[in-house]
Amino acid sequence: MTGLAPATREWLEAKGFVIANEAPWIEALTHGSFNGSGAEVADYQRLEFLGDRVLGLSVASWLFRAGDAPEGRLSQRLNALVSGATCARIARAIDLPVHIRLGKQARDDGGADSDKILGDVMEALIGACFIESGFDAAQAMIYRLWSHELEGDEGKSKHPKSALQEWAAGNRRAPPLYEVIDRSGPDHAARFTVQVSVRNVGAAEATATSKGEAERLAAKAFLEAFG
After folding, report:
1. C-alpha dihedral, 74 to 62 to 97 to 18, nearest 10°
2. Is the CB of residue 198 less than 8 Å from the CB of residue 222?
3. Is 120 annotated in some ligand binding site?
4. pTM of the complete model
5. Residue 52 known to be catalytic
6. Residue 197 has pLDDT above 70, yes or no
7. How far apart (Å, rounded) are the C-alpha atoms in residues 52 and 58?
8. Which of 3, 87, 108, 135 is 20 to 30 A off residue 152, Cα-Cα?
9. Which of left, alpha, beta for 206 (phi over 0: left; psi -120 to 50: alpha)?
10. How crowded is residue 54: how many other Cβ atoms within 10 Å of its Cβ?
């Protein structure tokens, strides 16, 4: 297995990651498509599984200590803060896309800008940090990278789909109907266009790299147009 590219190692260390063993970091940054080139390198999926749990526990702990909000509100904020969209946003903020090891076709197809891939790799890096340095170091890294989101309004306001559901009920309208009206791109870089409609009111649509995010954006657009 080849080592980390010098620029990638320098980038990781500049972001505060401690690299004693390169193997977990290489694994964390490797997409399954990379092995199509003949390389025999594990991809990020196992570390992503681990990192997802470390992220969830760290954020849940922070939220619990930050105030006395009820369980429902804590869950709402937790779901927003650990979502794939938030992880992808953090990944872009730290310039992760250029360091992901993708196969040529996946990179040509825009895999380095896929919310799904970026979110998964961000969680895999958390998993690698846990393996290398332990929970306390991984938690500290999460709090540093997520500081803006933790201190901000992410997840405090009602999720647009919940808000739209309540708006429809409050206005004696039929429940919102979500429909995928277009799907483009390969599986690892898919884009979904979702239309949400409320009978006798109107419709709005949005496009994103996941169905859930497209639904969220469509609900938000509907509320802005008709709410």
Report:
1. -160
2. yes
3. yes
4. 0.70
5. yes
6. yes
7. 10
8. 135
9. beta
10. 20
CA–CA gap between residue 107 and residue 114 (Å, rounded)? 10
Which residue in 27, 52, 115, 149 is the catalytic one? Answer: 52
Let me know how long the chain is.
227
Per-residue tokens: 32: 């399954």
Strand partners, 198: 202
User: Per the structure block, which two tokens stand in for 156?
Assistant: 């405090």
For 120-137, the pLDDT digits (tens) are 999 999 999 999 999 999
- 8 A C-beta contact, residue 117 and residue 32: no
Residue 217 has a pLDDT of: 92
Distance CA 56, CA 224 (A): 31
CB 135: neighbour CB atoms within 10 A?
Answer: 12
Query: DSSP strand E in the chain: where?
Result: 177-184, 191-198, 202-208
DSSP secondary structure, 91-103, as one string: HHHTT-GGG-B--
What three-state secondary structure class fits 205?
strand
Tokens of 151: 């201190």
Mean pLDDT on 18-26: 94
* CA distances, 8 to each of 31, 43, 49, 104 (Å): 15, 17, 22, 18
Residue 46: both structure tokens together: 């196992």
The answer to whether 187 is a known ligand-binding residue is no
